[in-house]
Amino acid sequence: MRIAFTGGSGKAGRHILPMLVENGHQVLNLDLQPLEAPGVDNLIVDLTDAGQVFSALSGYSNFGELEPGTGVPTFDAVVHFAALARILIQPDTETFRVNTLSTYNVMEAAVKLGIPKVVFASSETTYGVCFADGMRRPAYIPVDEEHPTVPEDAYAMSKVCNEVTGRSFQARSGIDIYGLRINNVIEPSEYEAAFPAYLEDASLRRRNIFGYIDVRDLGQMVERCLQVDGLGYEVFNVSNDDLSVGLSNDEVRARFYEGVPVKREMAGNDTMYCNRKAKRMLGFAPRYSWRDVLKG
Predict the structure, then answer these.
(1) Which end of the chain is more exposed for a tag (fewer CB within 10 A), N or C?
(2) How many domains does the chain have?
(3) Contact of 238 with 182, CB cutoff 8 Å
(4) Cβ atoms < 10 Å from Cβ of 65
């Protein structure tokens, strides 16, 4: 597939783009900073500028595309990961502006250019727990896609707004638009660097609903979204199967979630950030765990 990937130079993208290339896709990274990776083409684009977005998504990816003499090829999909990644990077107003306007511009251009699929990064923060002022517990566990999305911070608000934007563009056009409510992204190097602290103090993972997603499994999720057509508009939780702490599911519930309704029984180390919908509809099958690295 010929894929435009926004934000490919970020934490997730710098792992996922090489995976997509390895899987045989042609990938153009649209970002403010290039990604130096074999097989990845780069275009410097300000995604808050609608004209730049439209030009990028209707243009060539590399010099090789000039050779056939058949004009500019069309992208098969856009994967939109670019964003200000959390609160407290820039002022809240700028976080909301950048994240919502860039998403609108990408989706509008995709629809008007006839690109048949958009996969975009939403967030675990939409559930209102991650950046809450003080302690905020889920309405129930495990948290699935039916859980209320009523956050109070600018970043999560922008992600909820983006989901509405995606739903509306899908209704308007009929293309496939899939939103990924991504749990806390973990790079392989972070297992040894960060997880010992999580095993020592499980409360450090409360704001992430004690879950995580290995960036390599996130790459698999993107690939599954690219391969499965015809779902219209859908949102999916994206997480690994196990908790990110050394406590069992029962121990986490007893310590942190006493009185929180349990929607579906869980056991052992089962995640509280439910990924069953992605497994059922996309064939998502996470493979990685911190437990394989920190075996002691």
Answers:
(1) C
(2) 1
(3) yes
(4) 16
